[in-house]
Design goal:
The chain is built from five helices and six strands; from the N terminus they run ββαβααβαβαβ. The protein has 178 residues and is of the alpha/beta class. It has a six-stranded parallel beta sheet with strand order 1-2-3-4-5-6.
Length: 178
């Protein structure tokens, strides 16, 4: 079953989605968006008896310079979640300036359309780095909203979704893309 998530700004705003609640102590196949919290978010998720955390694997932070990866902050978040027996859905998103095709909205590069071929290389590096700890990946965050992606649906599909999903599956045949 693919986990269902409620993306919200505060972990305290957790809402249970209808599910089988025969055993109130059983972990649900539900989760909370904890962004990059390694303490409060995973603790609240575990205490709410949810089984998943959704985290931000921000490309702009993880690869600030092309080919130079730094997953240290994310390792802390993933390891904290796993220590609490939580599964992780990693959202792979947000273009670094070096990979941008241009900041068409003049609001910074994070939501820019990436140069062809740059995003799947990042995805491959991230999936290889998190092997055996993360098995579920989301390809970008809300690409239908200009604040998160300023390109067209066709650009999202051809430059992010298809090559990103292909990169996940090439690096981890058993991983799930949501």
């Amino acid at each position: 079953m693919v986990p269902r998530f409620l993306a919200c700004a505060a972990v305290a705003a957790l809402v249970a989605i209808a599910g089988d609640a025969r055993d109130a102590d059983a972990k649900q196949d539900l989760g909370a968006n904890v962004h990059q919290s390694s303490t409060t978010g995973p603790d609240a998720t575990r205490d709410a008896k949810l089984g998943w955390v959704r985290i931000d694997v921000n490309w702009v932070t993880a690869e600030p310079t092309q080919g130079q990866f730094d997953f240290a902050i994310l390792d802390t978040v993933v390891d904290a979640a796993r220590a609490r027996n939580l599964q992780v859905l990693a959202v792979l998103a947000y273009t670094p300036a070096w990979a941008s095709t241009g900041d068409t909205k003049s609001d910074g590069p994070n939501n820019d359309v990436p140069t062809a071929g740059t995003y799947p290389a990042f995805v491959t590096a991230a999936v290889n780095h998190f092997k055996n700890r993360v098995t579920h990946y989301e390809i970008w965050n809300e690409p239908n909203l200009g604040g998160f992606f300023e390109g067209t649906p066709a650009q999202y599909t051809s430059l992010i979704l298809v090559p990103g999903a292909d990169a996940v599956h090439a690096a981890c045949a058993t991983c799930t893309v949501v």
